[in-house]
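Hi R.,

Here's the chain you asked about this morning:
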Amino acid sequence: MGHGRAMINIDDEKLQLSIYERIISKNLSVRNTEKLISSFKNPTKKI
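And the predicted structure, written out as C-alpha cells:
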C-alpha cells in the first residue's frame, strides 16, 4: 500500500510504469521507492 501512495503523485503514466517495474525487479522497500520518486521529481543538477 505504501508503494502506491508514493507513486500516486506522479502524473506521467509511462513514468509510473517504469518506476513500478523497477520496484518489482529490485524488490524496493517503500522508503527506497520514495527516494527513487524524489530523484525523478528533483533531479540533481550536474555542473
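The longest helix spans residues 13-26.

Let me know if you need anything else.
M.
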